[in-house]
Amino acid sequence: MRRRQILTVAWANMKQRRLRTSLTTLGVVIGVTAVIALASLGEGFRVTVTQRMEQGFELNVLTIIPGSLFAGLSRERFNDTHVENIRNIESGVEAVTQVMQIGSVTLKSGDKEVRAFVATAVNFTEFVKVFQERFQFESVNGTPEQWINNTIVIGYKVNHPNDTETPFARSGDNINMTFQKLQFLFETRNFTVAGTLQKRGAPGLTNFDYWVFIPLDTAREIYQTNESDLIFVKVSDPDYSEQVADDIEALFPPYKISILVPITFIRQVDYILSLIQLFLTSIASISLLVAGIGIMNITTVSVMERTREIGIMKAIGAKNTTILTMFLAETALIGLLGGIIGVPTGYGLSYLLSYIVSRFTMRQQQDTVFQGPETQQSVITPIFSISWAVGALLFGVLICILFGLYPARKAAKLDPVQALRYE
Amino acid sequence: MPVILEAREVEKTYQMGKVRVSALQGITLQVEKGEFVAIFGPSGSGKSTLLHVLGGLDRPDKGSVYVDGINLSTLNEAKLAEVRLRKIGFIFQFFNLLPRLSALRNVELPLTLADFPEKESIQKATEILELVGLKDRVNHRPTELSGGEQQRVAIARALINDPKIVLADEPTGNLDTTTGWEIVRLMKRLNEEKGQTFVVVTHDQGVAETADRMIYLKDGVIQSVKKGGGGVSL
Fold it and tell me: Which of A316, A323, A324 would you mutate first to test chain B, the one with the most B CBs within 10 A?
């Protein structure tokens, strides 16, 4: 039978039973709407969370810490050779910098005094290459290359304790820093403020707002050691992270170091969120199954009502497959119609839900700790994905065809003589 | 004239509840091209069953049916449907038109099933509707047509695929006498003008006597075969 004719007949039949068709289609619409709404919100949630983590984590920076969680955190320390070896890794490494930890220090300027819990010594030239984004500040001396011994860079929260308007110190000021040199032995030295960091906030591993930085050479001279406690490695592309981490691990004896690779965290989180999204969508698909059962029911009724018609068709030469196709065309059309209405409805619903959620969370937002520019948009925006839209549409049609199959087969297998006698 | 339809020792039994009913008991008959044959008998004589078996709507328990030389018992369902579609035209007592389709679409349906191009099939259906005298009723639905008109549509539908044989099951049974005779005349005219072969099942002796040959059936057995008068004024 001509395909167009089958569709025309199917459409005519559907129009004939308007109410029935509408109600059956409504079931599919609800199913597809639920699938699309949950999928797009889930996708939006996943992307939002992943993006925020990416912003917080600095995906392209690996952190090497001494020791291993499972073999005990040793006091293994790093030196210039280690840094050099890492820098010489063939591909993927863009910049390497080591950090010596000094511990907590007290800064004094006149009668003002602030405490910094994380004082570190870094090679500014290298450090700024790794943390280009975050290690930006106003300085009197210009480029980092010109920084000399006994200078200090102060993080925002250290410089503005309790978010005070007036900073503790400005660039060019001379301040005193008291630090622990040996156990029970404290020393105070005069430093020139080379720069003050702007407020960045960082939900990730390191928050420079609470840090102060002095030149590595100064620290080496104070402590009489060339060893350091941490190494940061910037990779040229986050995708190289794992490979570079492997290369770094190979440079050290087993279990002597641990490498924090942010992209693996994010991949894990992303994976878990994808699973949650899939789970939610599967639950939504149950409503499509219910719609499918509705279709099965109504098609069975329709086959009974049209038994005589089927008999006529068969008597004048319709094959079983033709009858089967005719009924399946109807259920498929219902599925298609339901999908065409359901997909936009689903997206509409997800935007509505996201709007409601955003109204609810607005007030809470204002109280969050991290107010960096990147944290402003935390509302979940539903994500339109053409593949989800097409997928849900096809899934709806498929469900309708599958559930129509049983009654349609029954229709196709009717005995023509019996069917013609049916009243 | 060549034999178009042949039944050899056809038997058919029905299970009606706990009773087995022998509807056909060894029917053998031949219909030649261009013949107008009436199968005549009281109700329950097995006429309709015979017609169904002859038309490939039902399968005999024993014996075989040949349509245009094809042994129907060797065919699967799909092939049998193909034979019904291309070689046989059916006319029923209750017209059996599809209520949602216009007269034209009803007539065109077999061509649609045969994947005939739409334009040509519409033209052909229009011509045949004109032939059966329904030129002005082309776009009417069955409910908008009288019984006689509906049966004409059914006749047109039976003819559209140029079948080798048209099988009519009590074609006048649901019509008043006058209209019934009009239908008989139409079939006779098609038989005489176009050489269309007809097998008409009827319980009306008057109708049966217009045929070239009258086969009298009772209790599933052919009781007699008479030459009909062919006497119907056209």
Answer: A316
DSSP 3-state assignment of A252? coil
Residue where a domain terminates, one of A228, A255, A282: A255
Q: Enter the ipTM.
A: 0.91
Dihedral, A285, A290, A294, A300 alpha carbons, nearest 10: 100
Domain ranges (residues) in chain B: 34-61+73-227
Q: Which residue in B52, B81, B92 is closest to A317 by CB distance?
A: B81
pLDDT 10s digits, B22-59: 889 989 999 999 999 999 998 888 888 999 999 999 99
| pLDDT at residue A163 in the model | 78
Domain of residue A292, residue span: 3-57+266-421
Which residues of chain A have a CB within 8 Å of the CB of B91? none
In a domain? residue A172: yes
Assess contact for A152 and A172: CB atoms under 8 A. Answer: no
Domain match, A311 and A336 both: yes
- The dihedral through the CA atoms of A61, A62, A66, A71 has a sign that is positive
Using CB atoms, pick whichever of B96, B101, B110 lies closest to residue A317: B110
Is residue A371's pLDDT more than 50? no
Residue A32: inside a domain: yes
* CB count in 10 Å sphere of residue A371: 13
pTM equals 0.73
Fold of the CATH domain B34-61+73-227:
Rossmann fold (3.40.50)
A175 with A111, same domain: the answer is yes
Going by C-beta distance under 8 Å and a sequence separation of 6 or more, which residues neighbour residue B149? B103, B134, B137, B140
Task: Return the axis-axis angle of helices A3-16 and A18-57, rounded to nearest 10°.
Answer: 100
**Which site among B75, B84, B162 would you substitute to test the A interface, given the most A Cβ atoms closer than 10 Å to its Cβ?**
B84
